[in-house]
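Dear colleagues,

As part of the handover before I leave the project, I'm documenting each prediction I ran so the next person doesn't have to rerun anything. This entry is a single chain, and its sequence is reproduced below.
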Amino acid sequence: IVEAAGHLVRREPLDPKWSQRPGRATARVRAVVFGLSIELPKRVPLAPMDPAGARALAIEHLLVNPQADEALDALAFARHNRRRIAAARDMEQRTRRLLVDDASIFRFFDARIPATVVDRRSLLAWHGNASAGEREALHLGWDDVGLDGPPDHRAFPDRFAVGRNELDLTYRFAPGEHDDGATLHLPDALLDQIDSGQLRWLVPGWLEEKALRLLRGLPKSQRKRLAPMQSCAAAFVEHSGVLDGVPQSDLFDALAHFVSARLGEPVTASAFVGMALGPHLCVRLEITDARGQRTRSTRDPDALLHGTKRRAQPIAAQREWHRDEITRWDMGALPEEVRVKTGGMELVGRPVLEARGTAVGLRVFADVAHADRVHSGGVARLVLRQLKDKRRYLQKQLADVNELSLLFGTLGAPDTLFDDLSLCAVRRLAPMPLHEVRDDEAFDATLASARAGIIADAEALAADARCVLAQRRDVLARLDARLARSHGPVVNDVRAHVARLVPPTFLRDTPLEWLPHLPRFLKAVHQRLDRLVQRGNESPALLAEILRRESKFASVADEAHQARLETYRWLLEEYRVSLFSQPMRTSRPVSAKRLDAAWDAARRD
């Protein structure tokens, strides 16, 4: 009927759509003949029927929301505009604001593209004959895509430094969705290096909003003196210098110091703990395994990091850096760092020897302080594996074996004590710190020193260990039921303190520079108990102060962080001497201010 009617047919487009492959708009056709309506199934080009509609679809799909198009990508303006629009849409995800106005961009091209452009072919033809000025006019400016200038990624960084590794930070503006906001993609092997206090600074571009919400959670009497709150939050962001790099301190500590200075009265970081923030203001951690598969995610790093004591995990590495059952130094010189591909990422770590029981393996750890501690133990164990005859002789010849065994009996088996005596002797005899033994020459020198002096040194260590264990026994003997009834909190603290000071592995784990101080620390405990009996009481404020600081250290649940806080941990022992055992002197100056400085220095490293 349509073919026979010829010029009497009126054709109307139906369901116009853009077809990417031919690069033109198409539609189905409704033919009308003397009131009879016939819909034809085949889609045909739209331009002959509706040039204006075809042109609008061409501008929308070729220029406003362009898809991958090899022909168009050959044009300089198209490449330029694709990058500019992509940058603006990316900033939408980061700033959480709609920047790209499709209608404005459409008007931009509508004013510059002639009416004859209705599809890709006609666009390419016109562009080929256009003047340099007409071509230049097709380049979108930053203001055309809703930006004042090139995106400043200091406020919304693409990467976040965790130790020596730079991790991806991605953004999504999707309120209500599980991944709304910023997501830090974190390999499980680097979980030990995450600092939840530092994470709170993310994302710098949202910090003013976050600070404002935290300030509004303060008591009304303080809020009134900080008004206007928006200006106060903006001043804090400028004061923090966060745009020049995420500070190493805890956000809550920094904000508390800032508010304290403004109010002229102390405000502690605990004032901000537990305040409700929008989900997007809490960075999301996405934990991945060695294969790059997501294992879990959270917006509460404290629950993830501080829930339980966690053993630092090595980076899954290629066979070259992952060996077991090493019995001699046959790996040449170990580099200070290697780059390891794991889970689709390239991570930086330090290859070290790791002792696992009496065996020795080669592993890669990301955290330098923890890697050095592990390596020291691994080197000592490898030395002992080559001194089996000396160890057997030592165990037979040690004086007072029975007394040592009895004193150590409540802590562990005698074999454990003799093993630790040997390991500690290797550490003391080494011509250099064991974590610096990274080639066969240094290992041979360490082995030779141990072979020559391990018997005599272990005997001297046994005498020192006997002194420490005897003092431990005497302190615990004083904590009877009568003292516990009258001074329960102090007795509980002393028990916990002695358990930390002399654990079953005290010979293996106590740093060499602090090992000689154990008798003095135990003597200080005796003196504390003497003062308690003489005076009949002890300041609860002093006990609360030391428990607060020790709880702060204990809350760092992973081994890597605690390795970096080693100095702080032993300064706490000196601080206990200064608080509870005066006039006994400390081995070095110590105060609350010095402890805070040691904590901050360790967290920055």
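The first strand starts at residue 10 and ends at 19. The mean pLDDT is 88.

All the best with the project,
I.
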